[in-house]
Design goal:
A hairpin with a 4-residue loop joins β5 and β6. The chain is globular, with a radius of gyration of 13 Å. By secondary structure, the protein is mostly beta strands. It is built from 1 helix and 9 strands. The longest helix has 9 residues. Helices cover 7% and strands 35% of the residues. Strands 1, 2, 3, 4, 5, 6, 7, 8 and 9 form a 9-stranded mixed sheet that branches.
């Protein structure tokens, strides 16, 4: 799955069970490769889904096991390591030119659940 092609708000399922929606993608520090998605559950809990663990099927991201999801703390660790958290406007894709990119320590505020796609401070 190319995580930067997945629109924000796309449902995420584990074996046909809805577990959340895509709220951002994580890309390497050059911005050239998306390696995962931030998924926000209906409860507001955030998690990380590696690109290799999911399949984008046009209307949803699907994965075969909940064990592929990493804790939301992993998102912050990736951001501190230089990854960029990319958000677009409503209905946009994280990799679109309108996507907001934040890097490193600046990403801390962006990582909060924000279904509207704007940067939090």
């Amino acid at each position: 799955m190319n995580a930067s092609d997945v629109p924000l708000g796309t449902p995420v399922r584990v074996r046909d069970v809805h577990v959340g929606v895509v709220t951002a993608s994580l890309v390497d520090d050059s911005g050239g490769r998306a390696f995962g998605l931030e998924v926000t559950a209906p409860t507001g809990q955030r998690s990380f889904l590696p690109s290799v663990a999911g399949e984008f099927r046009g209307d949803a991201v699907e994965t075969s096991s909940a064990l592929f999801f990493g804790d939301g703390d992993q998102l912050e660790a990736y951001a501190r390591g230089g990854a960029r958290v990319v958000r677009g406007g409503e209905g946009g894709t994280p990799g679109s030119p309108a996507g907001r990119r934040t890097r490193g320590a600046e990403a801390t505020g962006v990582l909060a659940a924000d279904p509207g796609g704007t940067t939090l401070s």
